[in-house]
Amino acid sequence: MTLKSIEFVLPLADPGAVIETVGGKGASLARLISANFSVPNGFHVTTAAYVRFVQENDLQQSIEASIAKVDAHAPSTLEAASNTIQDLFMKANIPEEVASSIVSAYAELEGGNPIVAVRSSATAEDLPEASFAGQQETFLNIHGAVEVLNAVKRCWASLWTARAIGYRIRQGVSIQGLSLAVVVQKMVAAEAAGILFTANPLNGNRDQVVINAAWGLGEAIVGGQVTPDLLIVEKHDWRIVQRQTADKQVMTVRTNGSTELQTVPDALRKLEVLSDEQVVHLSQLGTQIEGLYQGAVDIEWVLADGEFSVVQARPVTGLPEVVIPSPEEWQPPKPKARYMRASIIDFMSNPLSPLFATMGVSAYNKSIQEALEEMTGKDKAKFPGEIIETIHDYAYMNASYTAGEWWALASLVPKFPKLLGNGAKHFRNKALPTYQRKVNELSVKSIDTMNLEEIWKDAHILVEAAMYHMSILQVDTLGASAGSEGLFTNTYNKFYKKEHDPTAPSFLMGYNNTPILAEKSVYDLAMWIKHQQDLAEFIHSTETEQIVAAFWGEDTPSKDMSNDWEEFKKRLQTHLDEFGYMLFDLDFSQPVPAENPTPQIEMIKIYLSGEGVNPYERQARLQEKREAATRNLRERLHGISGWVVTKTLGWAQSMAEVREDSIASIGLAYPRLRMLLLEIGNRLVKAGVIEKPEDVFWLEESEIEARLVALERDETLESLQSVCEERKKIRKAEARVIPPAQLPFSKTYMGIPIEVFMPGGGGEDGHELKGVGASSGKVTGVACVLHGPEDFDQMQPGGILVAPQTNPAWTPLFTMASAVVTDIGGPLSHGSIVAREYGIPAVLGTGVATRRIHTGQRITVDGTQGMVTIEDN
After folding, report:
1. pLDDT, tens digit, for every residue of 172-211?
2. Pairing between β-strand 800-803 and β-strand 208-215 as defined by DSSP bridges
3. Helix count (H) and strand count (E) of the chain?
4. What's the pLDDT score for residue 752?
5. Can the peptide bond before residue 744 be classed as cis, meaning omega within 30 degrees of 0?
6. CB atoms < 10 A from the CB of 294, how many?
7. Of the spans 3-7, 29-33, 164-168, which averages the highest pLDDT?
8. Taken in order 508, 770, 752, 392, is the CA torsion positive or negative?
9. pLDDT in tens, 389-425
10. Among 200, 116, 211, 123, which residue's Cα sits nearest to residue 159?
11. Considering only CA atoms, which of 826, 693, 102 is closest in space to residue 355?
12. What is the 3-class SS of 380-431, one letter each residue?
């Protein structure tokens, strides 16, 4: 095509046809042609032509003056401005050099003076983040140069229709520099036309193509004047899963110089517009265009002489989130086996990430074997293999063993007294130092200088070290503390407790353990901040999210406090270095506190406002109470019962002293482990396998391993992002359900009431939830439902903390809470201990709290009766 001016007119496929010069619609058509898709021929009238038209006719000042009078909420002002501007446009003349360029381009189209469609193409339309579709005009069945020029001018004027002006105001689009391009395109004598979405716009399903089809031109469908045929096609096998053939009463047809609606002939009204073969072909064409755009697209298509052509394509905006049905059937992996959500499962309340479910669970199962071998001195005993298994991605403990496995476990029985009695000493002198030494050894190398094999190897060593430590703790401290507290409570209550005596937990509180030391550290920081006036005001008045962002950033929020701010960052970082390993969840896909100081900032705010409990005073008060209770009890002990209580009390107190330290220590490897795994994620991002480093946790161990080998060979890797996204959706659906506490259900285990293994039972009756009364008292308040660290900023002072479970990393939230409710946990869990220390009611082990209760609801927590009542339904 020979053109007089490349500035005002461009061929449809010209390389210069980008959004800035030809608008969204024009740029899309150019892109389609360059990719060899069938698009009717034509040309662009560029934004430069519009700009010259406005300049030559001195229209900009009048446009701005009209828009200045608009009130977006008053339709009459939109109409008045639109009428004024459009009248100015239609009275203005197209500059000669612009008009001649358009006429020349039109004359050179095949067929000589062909019938064309003249379509507006705005520079702010058809973008991924906002669809401006339908805000400007299209003129069909245009014939002759004079009519083409007139249609172009009408397109320009349509930039200022009332709906376009209002839409831009609502979208926040400035009118400064606003311009409009026009696409002039040969019209296809369409037998049929329609719209195709490469994702289902109703339910967000990205695996389906949705097609609307009608007779004649597509304007009747776009304008909603005809009910079209509806077809839904599955992409994976091109199967038509739904076909609705409509009674198509009207269609758009060409008339002399325009288009009009006509009645569809009776023979065509209820006839399928597209055959099955055409549907599949069109669906495949749509997915090819989707590949070009790298995302879901909305396509306008026409059918003429048995061939499909594309007249428009744009990214789909506003697709709903894909809804995957939550699992309904809970079939055990082994039909005759018994599965329970108990013991170590308390640390895994949510569906497991794919990486932890493969890498972490297998490491734990291997580690428990090693721990049992070490405790028994037998390396060939047939211990249970897979202690932890997953069902719908939830962790379950396999509680069914073969005769051989029971025999191997029975060999532990004679060793239990010594193992349990030496638990505290073994934890302090061997388990903890060994674990800490391993973490320290693997934390000195610079990750940037490590190759993938080293990173992956170190990650495995740390996972195995953490899981082995977890396994050892189940005997050293967790099992021993449960057993010792239970024995002491029973003997004390039976032989010595009188009506006004302290409760058994009073003898086991007030130790200066790791979580308490972490609280004291935050308190000390808050007290220091209190004396730095500008910094204190900033912390007190600024949203926590902004403070956290500033902490990780490099800029000082205010020059007036630059020195104080740097000192604050230094002190908070010191705290995170010392205590930031305490886990929110055993699944290492969850960030550790060192990565998210939100709870610490919230705790500081509480202290700055004069609220909260001084942890020094609280710990000293509980210690004094414990020591006084112990002295008074010892004075009353006598005989055999006295000897039993003395022994059980000594054992229970020794375990209480180390129990919280041991739980806190589980995560010692996690900060370094997550750094290693995220670095692998970062390198997979560079290789195009995933989009974000965090997506590494949505891959399975074997998938990562295979790709690391390929990366070392410099092989090209395919993307697994769609796999990650699908797994995220599945786990989101799974998280909505309440996993059964046991499979199959039973009231006993080995003849023992199930409550012994699973306190609480998670019963519910209407608006009441039954759990374990872990800390006495009764409070009515507003629920704050927190599923994990990502929700911590939603905790409100005085609110009732409702969580899947709590562990040492959650402790800062107890400063704000008036009561605590959890899905998982019992009277010996971390949450119950801290709740008792804070003197707030706690009901744990409800099984359903985070699903049944919603943030903002008023609930009553009765820690004495173990009951939660939902006041607002």
Report:
1. 777 887 889 999 999 888 899 999 999 988 777 888 999 9
2. unpaired
3. 31, 28
4. 64
5. yes
6. 9
7. 29-33
8. negative
9. 999 999 998 888 777 776 766 666 666 677 667 888 9
10. 123
11. 693
12. CCCCCCCCEEEECCEEEEECCCCHHHHHHHHCCHHHHHHHHHCHHHHHHHHH
Q: Measuring CA to CA, which residue among 813, 832, 810, 817 is closest to residue 781?
A: 817
User: Of how many residues is the chain composed?
Assistant: 873
pLDDT score of 526? 95
Place of tokens 């086991």: 508
For Cα atoms 536, 539, 541, give the angle at the middle one, nearest 5 degrees: 105
Regarding predicted confidence, which is higher, 851 or 569? 569
Check residue 327 and give its pLDDT: 74
Residue 793 clears pLDDT 80, i.e. is over it: no
Question: d(Cα 193, Cα 274) in Å, to the nearest integer?
Answer: 10
Q: What is the rounded CA–CA span in Å between residue 15 and residue 756?
A: 74
pLDDT per residue over 338-383, tens digit each? 888 887 888 888 899 999 999 999 999 998 888 877 777 666 666 6
Go through the domains of the chain in sequence order and give each one's CATH number.
1-187 (3.30.1490.20), 188-323 (3.30.470.20), 506-637 (no CATH), 753-870 (3.50.30.10)
Query: What's the chain's average pLDDT?
Result: 86
Closest listed residue to residue 536, CA positions, set 552, 516, 557, 520: 557
3-state secondary structure of 215: strand
- Give the C-alpha separation, 362 to 339, whole Å: 17
What predicted TM-score, i.e. pTM, was given to this entire model?
0.65
Structure tokens at 677: 């795994």
In 264-419, DSSP assigns E strands to 297-304, 307-315, 339-340, 388-391, 394-398
Report how far apart, in Å, the C-alpha atoms of 36 and of each of 32, 289, 805 are. Answer: 6, 10, 57
Q: Report the candidate in 696, 558, 541 with the shortest Cα–Cα distance to residue 608.
A: 541
* Gyration radius of the chain's alpha carbons: 35
